[in-house]
Amino acid sequence: MSIWTSGPVAAILRAMSHWPLTREDIARPAYRSLAQGIAAAIDSGSLRPGDRLPPHRDLAWQLRVSVQTVSRAYEELIRADLISGEVGRGSFVKSGPRETVEVPWFRAPVDRPPLDLSMMTPVRLPQIDEAWRDSLMRVAAHVPAPVMHSFRPRQTMSLYGGMAAAWLARCGLMVPAQRVLVTNGTTPAMFIALMSVAGPGDEIATESSTCHTLKPAAQHLHLRLRGIPGDDRGMCPEALMAAAHASGGRMKAVFLLPGGAGPFARIMDRERREALAQAATKAGLIILENDATGPVARRRPPPVSTFAPDRSLYFTGLSKCLSPGLRLGFLATPEMLTERVLNRHMSMAWMATPLMAEIATDWMANGTADLLMAGQRTELTLRNRLAHRMLEGQSEGGPNGLHRWLPLPAGTDEQALVTRALDSGVALAPGSGFAVTDRAPAVRLCLGGTTYRELEQALGIVKAILPAK
Known about the structure:
CATH class of the largest domain: Alpha Beta
Number of domains: 3
Largest sheet: 7 strands, mixed
Strand content: 5-15%
Mean pLDDT: 90
CATH architecture of the largest domain: 3-Layer(aba) Sandwich
CATH topology of the largest domain: Aspartate Aminotransferase, domain 2
């Protein structure tokens, strides 16, 4: 099901299931409704790659709309990279995106698993295994009935609004429990946020390199990403406003990673956060703030969302902070978007898995979450110091971050270096996996997926194969 929703829901649903469209499928604004209908037909397979769309005048006559309406709809679809217009031949459905999402981390099968620095994960503390065992025993003895029997999202998840709001308070965001949506992780929360603020052909501003999951999500939703120039403090507010103005209204939101989870491992300072919130407000953009690592870093500035609470969607989760298996995310919404966000979530996932929320509630109530967080900070501090020392200051990152960014000399063959590292037993994430407009060679070094001794060994291998400056 495509998420190109604006206009009457009935018309959209009819357009999902058939081709050709009829006059009854068209709602105001007609050009957007037509574009949505064609996109839905492509998504459902009613229109296939290579199919020729009707000429402008023929479709206008069939649907009793103007030729200008058809032309504008086709232009939207061309911008969304769904169709192509060929002079003298007509308009054709383009080949769809590859079904396999390219990920920047290592996943090929090998006889001997490498020292994996490619996947961003928290450190595997011994306390995590113990926490899971103890919590599962406690929860098994007192499982609330809605966890086992309820199909009602509001009834079930109302049990966990307070827990979610308490975690967001740890992240520096104070929000009422009724405006926090509990999801099955940060990526689903991001997907829902995108669905709630933009439609096909719309633009989302982001940094020149961003989280790898944003790119396939945007492609699936037929959104366009616009990389915004930045400096060593993050995205430049002036550049954001200029790009929004140049988009002619197509830019709907700005996607930010200010808390250290982005590829550059940068924690944005308070002044830049406030300036970006002001720029987004002036440009009429919604702020999508991805804070995947939450409160792992100490003494962080307030979230960007606190400076523009009425136009911000903030999301975070527990899998990067406490345990990869704790797939739970929290999406804080402004009042004007709360109902829309809830509807999008129900259409995509219905509700988060209650058992995960029950375990998270247990961990927060008995202090386990704080104990694990403290352990992560201590271990990550040691690992960041090790990486900084062994790589002689060439890598970038915060004192408690889960990864570091290693720029490579200009002209370095990034993929060749990654391959050489893998041949030497170390898996790295190439910078190209995160790039929107940034093409400078780099690799991401994740610090949590190995033991301390293995990390030291892996960093020694990386250092040995780095090209000379």
